[in-house]
Each structure stands twice: as structure tokens, then as C-alpha cells.
From TrEMBL:
Superkingdom to which the source organism belongs: Bacteria
Segments forming domain HTH luxR-type: 147-212
Keyword Ribonucleoprotein: no
Modification 4-aspartylphosphate occurs at: 54
PANTHER family named in the record: TRANSCRIPTIONAL REGULATORY PROTEIN NARL-RELATED, TWO-COMPONENT RESPONSE REGULATOR
InterPro entries documented for this protein: CheY-like_superfamily, NreC/VraR/RcsB-like_REC, Sig_transdc_resp-reg_C-effctor, Sig_transdc_resp-reg_receiver, Tscrpt_reg_LuxR_C, WalR-like
Keywords: DNA-binding, Phosphoprotein, Transcription, Transcription regulation
Organism phylogeny: Bacteria, Bacillati, Actinomycetota, Actinomycetes, Pseudonocardiales
Protein name according to UniProt: Response regulator
Response regulatory domain mapped to chain residues: 3-119
Family matches, as SMART domains: HTH_LUXR, REC
Species for this entry: Amycolatopsis silviterrae
Amino acid sequence: MITVVVADDEPMVCAHLRTILGSAGDIEVVAQAQDGAEAVEEVIRHRPSVVLMDLRMPGVDGLAAIERICALPEPPAVVALTTFDADTYVIRALRAGAAGFLVKSTPPEDLIGLVRVAADGHTVLSPSAARRLVALSSDGHRRDDEARRRTAGLTERERDVLACLGEGLSNADIAGRLHLAEATVKSYVSRMLVKLDCTNRTQAGLLAHEAGLVGR
């Protein structure tokens, strides 16, 4: 069972998401919160698989809550909820550790599938969305320099794998493209997350874009 905590300061949004997700036999919304502080409390209490986090809430906002949740031991996948698909606020959420983002107008059938994707540890972010978000960064040149510095110590094969993460590919897709065993790709990804100090595949994928590794 995939357990979910929904955090949004609009009760109608919470109720809508609970109804949609509750229609899936393998997903259960175990709690909802109306601000970031309450969201952190519910995560600690329920240890969910996934958190759907509105970014703009009064009091403790979604960004602060994401940072606190991602700092917990074995944190859940946190997916940012936003009204716009190219929101600069989302960049900060992804860098804080969010596994991706969903637009609130996402169709119900897609929402259920994307929650399953997040629960499986994959990125909830399309490559085109990643490119738009990186382009929107107000400190793009500084980020590019930092990204190149952080990736400078990677081997050529590691850079290839990181570029594939930037395209949003799964481990199986990366294995097929680079002619590697899927277990080998998984090992590469795990090592790179530690080496690059990235919380998840989404952060690593954004780093790949910022370092100019995607489409080279």
C-alpha cells in the first residue's frame, strides 16, 4: 500500500486529492495538513511513502517543510504541488530535495500514476520541464559554474549516466542505452548521489542540465 500525506492550505484541494487517490486500490491518504509545520508532524507520525506538498502556504511554507522532511532519516518522496508548470519557486523546492512536481490541474488518472512513480523512487519531472526550470533560474551562470565544479571529478561513464538522469530515463532505459546491466546502473546512480551530494535522482538530473551534460 502506498501511503500519502497531502499538504495544502485549501481544504477543497485536499479533499479533491484525497478523493482521487482514494479511488486507487493501492493508495491510501493517511493524513492531510494545512501548513508546513503540520505536514512535518504528520510525516513523522505516519511515515508515508509520498508527500504531496503545496509550496505556498501561510506560516511554515512548503519549501521549509520540504527541507525539514528531506532531512529526516529515510524520508518519503516529496512532490511539490504548483499551479504553474514553470514556476521559479519549484526550482527551490527541487534543490531542497523534492522528487519532482505536479501541476494541480493534473488529470486524475495521471495523478495516480505519478504518485506510484514517486513511491517507486523515480523522478516526477519531465525532461522538458527540467529544462524550463533550469532556464528560469535567476542565478544561472553561478549555478552552471558550481555544477561543472561538482561534476568535474566524475568518470566519463558516470557523466554518461548522469546525463541520462537529466533526460529523466529509468535505470532500465539507461542500461539499454549504455549497454550496461540494470544492477550496474543502479550502483552507478547510488554512488553518484553520494559523490554529488544529491538527495535524489531529480536533483542529480537538474545538476546534469546545469553542468551542460544533457544533449552534449
